[in-house]
Design a protein that fits this description.
Largest sheet: 7 strands, parallel
Bound molecules: NADP nicotinamide-adenine-dinucleotide phosphate
Order of helices and strands: EHEHEHEHEHEHHHE
Distance between the termini: 40 Å
Strand content: 15-25%
Oligomer: single chain
């Protein structure tokens, strides 16, 4: 049985990706940050689909913990699936903070850098020895990196832009092992991002819908399905790509 590790799966896109991946018969190790219950709820959602998942805590902003996390993953793989390796890594965990450049604090900038760029970089580095040849990595980026600048998102978008560059470098360096590396760039998607911004500011939704060709905002499952597709063997000839998944935002 193949196994995928999905970060940031206690809500939103990560949860949907975990469920969609599990639906394709792949075992899931998923991580949560502060929302342990959310992680457990995702495990229950996977089990409801007949799949197997294990939830582990992980702070993407604390790279000093990654070695211990790798040891924990090693134990989970052995105990749950009798395997020494896993196949696919989805670097999805993330957070958003907006501030105009003139107001940005170094603390907020550093937090975004640690979680959105340094985290995926070094988590991948530490987990690579546990990855089987021939698997896939999917990095959750954002349209914000490539679309016309939205004031306030300079630091967030810059880190996602860095992740896009990193995606291509990973694809190049890991290709000899047959590991494919791609990014997905969601448009506005109804998740808990931005401290539950969609719930707190529902008035922004009509403007987002108006800019979306398909006439609604994205749902987590819209993105989760693409992530699962990129992980699966159907995408075996696809690497170093960054795929927008936005229903035609600003088309
Ligand atoms: N929603 C959108 O419109 C949109 C658009 C483009 C890109 N994205 C990207 O999609 C990805 C998933 O976000 P989402 O929209 O699904 O939002 P979400 O519902 O808020 O989910 C974010 C996930 O990341 C985890 N996380 C946040 N900070 C973390 C940290 N320091 N360490 C470990 N885990 C952490 C959260 O865990 P806890 O809650 O357990 O702490 C949660 O599982 C992010 O990379 C985001 O940038 C989203």
């Amino acid at each position: 049985m193949q196994i995928a590790l999905v970060t940031g799966a206690s809500s939103g896109i990560g949860r949907a990706a975990a469920v969609e991946i599990a639906k394709r018969g792949i075992g899931v190790v998923l991580t949560y940050g502060r929302n342990r219950q959310g992680g457990l709820d995702t495990v229950a959602a996977v089990e409801k689909e007949g799949g197997t998942a294990v939830a582990l805590p992980l702070d993407l902003g604390a790279s000093g913990t990654f070695d211990a996390f790798r040891d924990t993953v090693t134990g989970v793989l052995r105990d749950t699936w009798r395997r020494d390796t896993f196949d696919h890594l989805v670097n999805n965990a993330g957070l958003a903070h907006s501030a105009l450049i003139e107001d940005m604090t170094e603390d907020t900038f550093d937090l975004l850098a640690r979680v959105l760029l340094k985290g995926p970089y070094f988590l991948t580095q530490r987990l690579l020895p546990l990855m089987a040849d021939g698997g896939a990595i999917v990095n959750t980026s954002s349209m914000a990196a490539d679309s016309s600048p939205e004031p306030g998102y300079s630091a967030y978008a810059a880190m996602k832009g860095g992740l896009n560059v990193l995606t291509r470098y990973m694809a190049k360096e890991f290709a000899p092992r047959g590991i494919r590396v791609n990014a997905v760039s969601p448009g506005p998607t109804r998740t808990r991002l931005g401290d539950d911004g969609f719930t707190r500011f529902p008035e922004v939704i009509p403007a987002l819908v108006a800019r979306t060709a398909f006439g609604r905002v994205g749902e987590p499952e819209d993105v989760g399905a693409l992530i699962a597709t990129l992980v699966s063997d159907e995408s075996r000839w696809v690497t170093a790509q960054n795929i927008e998944v936005s229903g035609g935002y600003d088309l």
